[in-house]
Design goal:
The chain is an alpha+beta fold and about 350 residues long. The protein is built from eight helices and twelve strands. The N and C termini lie far apart (about 65 Å).
Length: about 350
């Protein structure tokens, strides 16, 4: 490095000496537009230190490539924060809120668990059930059959309630929002079960703008809270065959919604039928460090949480506490939530 700098300095000295000999004067000419002042004598290459000469010789190049490197680091950090190109698109569209807050109307607050709220869009009814604020034990006890180590029991508290769709999103709802068309009655009540997480998130955004409400995928904690409905058993609402379409009774196909028994809050098909996307990113050990109040999942991660099991899943995989990663389940169904946002208390 020092040898190359020395060579550059020697070459620069030769150029300066040739210029002075051609001009016949040891002083360099004044700059055009000077006010008659003497031009300050510049240091020759020999008088500059190695690093000063290096910076003088390569300053523009360093600034250019350094700027490109900083832009690359910024892009890499944004990629890790958003998780995918779709996430980056949402970031630029909605700012720091990767889930797209675009509420216009105020979401009404329910009075009791299971209260009904009906919204209409394109002639299709969206029936929501109220999940009141409260707390519950998330995860599963060690004695539960089929549990995994990642289902660490921990307490979760919700500071406000939310509305959750009583069924999974059906083909009728999907086609109405995403394609602008209606299906025949024969297939309209089948749940969608083969969409990606990004497509499900896009559905929430489009429907939210149509209804003028804040529409989102449920968080993992919201999903399990709604599934349990003040119940701590693995299957809430009865035995597996009474509440779930699973590999043992589905015949290898998806079934219309609300054909099985619901839970205490009249929410159906939380177990089996179509697996369901959640808003959270997936992390195996997240339960260990999860905050108690209103958990939103890890801030980083490329895969999402899938809950509920499917019509192709075995009974243990359909439990209320069972969780899967996007690595194993590429396509799934989903249901949506309307979040009630309480007014901020005025400071006295």
């Amino acid at each position: 490095m020092k040898n190359s700098i020395s060579n550059f300095k020697k070459q620069n000295e030769r150029r300066e000496s040739r210029t002075r000999s051609m001009m016949g004067n040891s002083k360099l000419p004044k700059y055009a537009g000077d006010w008659g002042d003497e031009v300050p004598k510049q240091k020759s290459a020999a008088e500059l230190s190695d690093w000063a000469y290096f910076w003088k010789r390569w300053d523009h190049t360093i600034i250019f490539w350094g700027g490109l490197f900083l832009l690359f680091c910024l892009w890499l950090g944004l990629w890790r924060y958003c998780g995918s190109l779709v996430g980056m698109e949402h970031f630029f569209r909605n700012g720091l809120s990767r889930d797209g807050d675009f509420a216009v109307k105020k979401v009404p607050r329910g009075e009791f668990g299971g209260q009904k709220l009906v919204l209409k869009n394109d002639g299709i009814e969206y029936v929501f059930r109220w999940c009141p604020r409260g707390n519950f034990r998330m995860g599963s006890p060690e004695s539960e059959k089929g549990r995994k180590d990642e289902e660490t029991p921990h307490r979760v508290t919700f500071s406000s309630g939310f509305w959750i769709l009583e069924t999974e999103i059906t083909e009728e709802m999907w086609d109405s929002v995403m394609r602008g068309e209606n299906l025949s009655e024969k297939k309209s009540k089948l749940p969608v079960w083969d969409v990606s997480w990004s497509d499900a998130d896009a559905f929430c955004e489009k429907l939210g703008r149509m209804l003028e409400f804040r529409v989102k995928l449920p968080t993992e904690a919201q999903w399990e809270y709604a599934c349990r409905a003040e119940n701590s058993r693995p299957f809430c609402g009865g035995e597996p065959d009474r509440v779930a379409w699973h590999a043992g009774n589905s015949g290898g196909k998806v079934h219309p919604v609300k054909k099985k028994r619901g839970n205490l809050w009249f929410i159906y098909d939380m177990h089996g039928n179509a697996a369901e996307w959640c808003r959270d990113r997936y992390e195996v050990d997240y339960y260990v460090n999860s905050p108690e109040k209103d958990p939103l999942g890890p801030r980083q991660g490329r895969t999402r949480v899938v809950r509920g099991g499917s019509f192709m899943a075995e009974i243990p995989e359909c439990r209320a506490a069972a969780r899967e990663s996007q690595l194993r389940v590429r396509k799934a169904g989903f249901r949506i939530v309307l979040e009630f946002v309480p007014k901020k208390k005025k400071k006295e």
